[in-house]
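[stage:ingest] chain + small molecule (NDP)
[stage:ingest] validated
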Amino acid sequence: MSTIAFLGLGAIGTPMARHLARSDWNLRVWNRTAERAVLFAKSLAAEKVTHVRTPAEAARGADVVITCFPVSRDVESLLDGPDGLLAGLASGATLVDCTSGDPATSQRIAARLAEKGIGFLDAPVSGGVAGAEGGTLTVMVGGDAATLERVRPYLEAFGKKIVHCGAIGAGDAVKAVNNALLALHLWSTAEGLATLRKAGVEPAVALDVINTSSGRSNASMNLFPERVLTRAFPRTFRLALLDKDVGIAAQVARDQKLPTPMLQLTAELFRAAHAGMGEEADHVEVVRWVEQLMGVEIKGE
Ligand code: NDP
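[stage:predict] done
[stage:export] tokens:
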């Protein structure tokens, strides 16, 4: 029977881990705030999920260890020491990092693990909390193709589309660029709709047109109708994390000395919005920030 460990029971990690709780796999969970792991294991006691007290304990004897933290440095910081992942991971095991991380840190982590015969894949996900709950995430993977084939059944527990993007760091890079596009769409759609409202056009009417025309995006088709016009702004993905993702995309471009004014500006705008709105704001709440700058709300009469 395979043994899997899942570390990082946050907004997206929790529903991902739930799919790994199956009777034919042993699942161990670890979370920095232990209470979350205790409650998670309790809720899945029938599937024999266990919570452990250290990353080392999670990794000991595990075939696959999956991590899902805010940034790659969080993974790196859990490698060392008597309680760290390296104290538990055995040669032949694989660490799959589902953090939306950065390529440079993933490459450093992979090199350290390779010295001990441990595999590594960067495997960030897209599809949001709803996709994680439905087991329909897209998983973008960087690393060795044969290693991916070995762990594919575990990724299929929460992922519907699993794409090998290239060498270590390629998954992180694709994820960062995807999210930079999300950020760009959120900001530009907010500017456009606020401008139209000032010009006397109802946002719902404008979206009705845009969403059957060439300016549409996931932001205009789903996020604005469901979260902005309703003023619901549910908290599913923190603005802090989107700021981090856009920053990674901008850094990847700078590392290659590419002229990318749009990416760099988006990174700057999201850095300011994150600083102004704090750690707990949802990513769609950046629209509120744009509304404040423009002095108009995107809502119906
Ligand atoms: P959350 O902020 O909800 O959860 C973060 C998790 O990481 C918590 O379990 C937290 O533990 C843990 N953690 C934070 N810092 C550390 C640390 N230094 N050491 C150990 N554990 C730590 O984040 P999400 O679940 O939303 O996001 C996780 C990753 O997934 C991010 O990279 C994000 O960009 C990505 N992602 C998120 C999506 C979403 O819709 N939410 C969609 C796609 C990708 P504790 O309980 O102690 O706080």
